[in-house]
Amino acid sequence: LVALVTLLCFVVSEAHEAYVAVAGMETVITFLFLLLYLLRLDTRMRCLFWPLADIFNSVIAALFLLVVCLFAIIMRTNKGTLAGGVLGLTLLVLSIADAVLLCKKISLDKARGGRAPAR
């Protein structure tokens, strides 16, 4: 929802295309991951470890959002761009929190089995 509002702020304020592109990309990718998990497609498509892909997406999105939203706040051509930049930084914090929570949730040691001896 925050990604969509950020995108709308950038579109309405007629901000630079890079701002709109990053916000739009994050909105679409977030919606696709939400759809993937809601429809339980991650259990059917086992070709990829989806939580790790989600972590990778969150980290890359955080890096892009950091650069773009700082430029939007520094350049602030109008109030819509400034609002989009602030909301984008909020989305950055949410992306980092998502990556940290997913890292805590998954464990690569579970694949070895519960009774495997520690080395």
Automatic annotation (TrEMBL):
UniProt key word Transmembrane helix: yes
Organism domain of life: Eukaryota
Residue stretches spanning the membrane: 18-39, 51-75, 81-103
Membrane topology: Multi-pass membrane protein
Protein's name according to its UniProt entry: CKLF factor
GO cellular component terms given for this protein: membrane
PANTHER family registered for this protein in UniProt: CHEMOKINE-LIKE FACTOR, MARVEL-CONTAINING POTENTIAL LIPID RAFT-ASSOCIATED PROTEIN
Residue runs in coiled coils: none
Occurrences of domain MARVEL (ranges): 1-107
Signal peptide annotation: 1-15
Keywords: Membrane, Signal, Transmembrane, Transmembrane helix
Cellular localization per UniProt: Membrane
